[in-house]
Automatic annotation (TrEMBL):
Protein name as annotated: Translation initiation factor IF-2
Binding site for GTP: 85-92, 132-136, 186-189
Primary gene name: infB
Molecular-function annotations in GO: GTP binding; GTPase activity; translation initiation factor activity
Domain Tr-type G: 76-246
Domain of life, source organism: Bacteria
Location relative to the cell: Cytoplasm
A cellular-component GO term for this protein: cytosol
Task performed by this protein: One of the essential components for the initiation of protein synthesis. Protects formylmethionyl-tRNA from spontaneous hydrolysis and promotes its binding to the 30S ribosomal subunits. Also involved in the hydrolysis of GTP during the formation of the 70S ribosomal complex.
Family: Belongs to the TRAFAC class translation factor GTPase superfamily. Classic translation factor GTPase family. IF-2 subfamily.
Residues of the full protein shown: 301 to 778 of 877
Length: 478
């Protein structure tokens, strides 16, 4: 636990320069941006006549989320679905086509609003919510911030193209998150479509569809010709039955941010997905390090709504600042409480930035390995040729034991991309580059998120380092 001089001064309602002077008197040569550890901060504050109450996360955020739900409170809720797949395989077309299957929208004649998520009503109490930012970057970014909103991933694979690099990435992201996949084999209307090749190719990625004896559902569709969309929807509903998706609607709402933006006239606008409880107009919420009062809510058809239950995406107005996708929100009892938590989180964020913790280094990984029960080391590997990647994965497999093992989240041929880093971040993993480098976006993302990228050109060096981490012997000076 640390605090900056500036922050400490602010909390004692004194100027930072005065605190710096005070610290200098005590023999500490520091600037306003320097960080003090908790003990030092307490000492100097007490010297200055302040009663010190150390506030930990547990104190401020205690009680957030409230009591656990009982089985009797739980009601079925619609599944939340994200569509992933290679570029041009038809993600956007499929999202648009699915959206048009809504039975109610047709009647009401509402105007489609792109708020980041939409819900289709299929009649008979059957509903499905889709996140309409396709692709794995958004999905994993949300996961990295703590949101686990997606229940099911639709992996779109064009039947005339089969598995491509971003298909592979999507599979890795889905697996890392532990979210079940339904394969949508798209473009089956094309003359050169070969759905069976897709099914066979998927075996290499340990995805065994039902017709190949596995338990992953696959559905042939054409987004363009709107063929078999109901088949895909049936598959989604079946999968969600298996998942027994339930939530208690009768409690203060909590959930996650899907999108946030600043609107010139309306201020902060954010799309929220309620995970449990019911969000109501007038509710006071804390969201990430922002807070606000829900002034207005509207849905993806542009209709004003007063309430939003689980898995019903709504756009809300009334926040003091723009939250980030993946930030979680909680409805709280008062503005004072919302403000307290938001300010606490802002402080925490600043302190984190100031401490600039180096994130996921191999050394920290080792410390984690020593702490945690499950001694598993996640890792992302990119290499120049498939052969060397296979050799590395094989060697890592061999050194895994019952107590410690390497979990390869993703491998791929080619340079390290932003997507690789985001995937690593979400699982606290380092990225290994074997004879490949990271591009600019990837380096920036790694810098921002503290993900460690390590480069190797000799397999044995790489294996040695990982072995050292696994056996808890890595020299901290490395
Ligand atoms: P995305 O990049 O994955 O979002 O792919 P798009 O939805 O933008 O589709 C890429 C291209 O494939 C567009 O020209 C679509 O019209 C076309 N496309 C999408 N689905 C189908 C389909 O089922 N059949 C055929 N023939 N073309 C399709």
């Amino acid at each position: 636990e640390t605090i900056t001089v500036q922050e400490l001064a602010a909390r004692m309602s004194m100027r930072a320069v005065d605190l710096v002077k005070e610290l200098m008197k005590q023999g500490q040569m520091v600037t306003a941006n320097a960080t003090l550890d908790a003990d030092t901060a307490q000492l100097v504050a007490e010297d200055l006549g302040h009663a010190v109450k150390r506030v930990s996360e547990a104190d401020v955020e205690e009680g957030l989320g409230g009591a656990a739900d009982t089985d009797a409170d739980m009601k079925s809720r619609p599944p939340v679905v994200t569509i992933m797949g290679h570029v041009d395989h038809g993600k956007t077309s499929l999202l648009d086509a699915l959206r048009q299957t809504d039975v109610v929208a047709g009647e009401a004649g509402g105007i489609t609003q792109h708020i980041g998520a939409y819900q289709v009503d299929l009649g008979n109490e059957r509903k499905i919510t889709f996140l309409d930012t396709p692709g794995h970057a958004a999905f994993t970014q949300m996961r990295a911030r703590g949101a686990k909103v997606t229940d099911i991933i639709i992996l779109v694979v064009a039947a005339d193209d089969s598995i491509m690099p971003q298909t592979e990435e999507a599979i890795s992201h889905a697996k890392a998150a532990g979210v079940p996949i339904i394969v949508a084999i798209n473009k089956v209307d094309k003359p050169d479509a070969d759905p069976n090749k897709v099914r066979t190719d998927l075996l290499q990625y340990e995805i065994q569809v039902e017709s190949m004896g596995g338990d992953v559902q696959d559905v042939e569709v054409s987004a363009l010709k709107k063929m078999n969309l109901d088949g895909l929807q049936e598959a989604i509903l079946l999968q969600s039955e298996l998942l027994e998706l339930k939530a208690n609607p009768d409690r203060p709402a909590e959930g996650a941010v899907v999108e946030g933006r600043l609107d010139k006239g309306r201020g902060a606008v954010a799309t929220m997905l309620v995970e449990r409880g019911t969000l109501k107009r007038g509710d006071i919420m804390v969201v990430g390090s922002e807070w606000g009062k829900v002034r207005a809510m509207s849905d993806d058809k542009g209709a004003q709504v007063k309430e939003a239950g689980p898995a019903y995406p709504v756009e809300i107005l009334g926040l003091n600042g723009v939250p980030e996708p993946g930030d979680t929100f909680h409805v709280v009892e008062s503005e004072a409480r919302a403000r307290e938590i938001a300010e606490f989180r802002q402080r925490q964020r600043r302190e984190k930035a100031a401490a600039k913790s180096s994130g996921t280094s191999l050394e920290q990984m080792m410390a984690q390995l020593q702490d945690s029960e499950i001694k598993e080391m996640p890792i992302v590997i990119k290499g120049d040729v498939q052969g060397s990647i296979e050799a590395i994965v094989g060697a890592l497999d061999k050194m895994s034991t019952d107590e410690v093992r390497v979990r390869v989240l993703h491998t791929g041929v080619g340079g390290i991309s932003e997507s690789d880093v985001i995937l690593a971040e979400a699982s606290n993993a380092p990225v290994i580059g074997f004879n490949v480098r990271a591009n600019k976006q990837a380096r920036d993302e790694a810098e921002r998120s503290g993900v460690e990228i390590r480069y190797y050109s000799v397999i044995y060096d790489l294996i040695d380092d990982i072995k050292a981490v696994l056996s808890g012997m890595l020299d901290p000076e490395l």
